[in-house]
Amino acid sequence: MVDNWLSKFSGVAPASLAMAARAAVAHLVGLGHRRIGYLAGPADNILEHERRAGFREGLKGTGLSERSASFYPGDFTFAAGVGAAVTFLKTRSRITALFAANDEMAIGFVKTLRSAGVAVPQDVSVVGFDGIEFADFVEPTLTTFRQPRRELGYEGAQLLAAAMRGDVIDPAQAHQRRPVALLVRSSTGPAPG
């Protein structure tokens, strides 16, 4: 019951998440990347559904075939990023860029690649999502989409308190969109060779 309520009143319209994922693909294609991977979140998560849909739309919108993309399973954890990197390292025909559905997985991916001698962004560019504070301090700093997390948390708490009081919640108030900002940092660069 709570999960259904939270998905309905998440504070960020899913379309905004899909638009951000499309922008990630456009950013990478603008840098010359044509073999792009997607590191997924949990299969039953609404955020994952929207980000994956946006990634696919981004490929289509830039003229890339979905067959040219690689899809890695994930679950929003650091370990999932490590697992995707291990799979990447075993692959002969590698992607040159990755969009991870969250920053924690992106950081696990980058750390594992760098430990194996793969240069980020020279060999592979990486984009995350969420704009967690740690993304500002990892090396290289992570290109990511920053969400207004404090604002979302505050507004979500206000809606939850109103629902608990039995207040009538205006659907327009519950489905507000908040912009996300692409922060281009050191983890993305031109496609290799």
Brief overview:
45% of the residues lie in helices and 10% in strands.
Describe the structure.
This protein is of the alpha/beta class. It has a single domain, classed as 3-Layer(aba) Sandwich (Rossmann fold). Helices cover about 45% and strands about 10% of the residues. It has 7 helices and 6 strands; from the N terminus they run ααβαβαβαββααβ. A 4-stranded parallel β-sheet has the order 2-1-3-4, sandwiched between helices. A two-stranded antiparallel sheet has the order 5-6. Strand 3, helix 5 and strand 4 form a beta-alpha-beta unit. Helix 2 packs across helix 3 and helix 4 crosses helix 5. It is elongated, with a radius of gyration of 17 Å. The termini are far apart. The N terminus is likely disordered.
Report on the biggest sheet. Answer: 4 strands, parallel
Write the CATH homologous superfamily.
Answer: Response regulator
CATH architecture: 3-Layer(aba) Sandwich
Strand content: 5-15%
Rg measurement, Å: 17 Å
Question: Order of helices and strands, N to C?
Answer: HHEHEHEHEEHHE
CATH top level assignment = Alpha Beta
What integer is the average pLDDT? 87
Instruction: State the domain count.
Output: 1
Estimate the helix proportion, in percent.
Answer: 40-55%
Number of helices: 7
Question: N- to C-terminal separation?
Answer: 51 Å
> What would the CATH topology be?
Rossmann fold
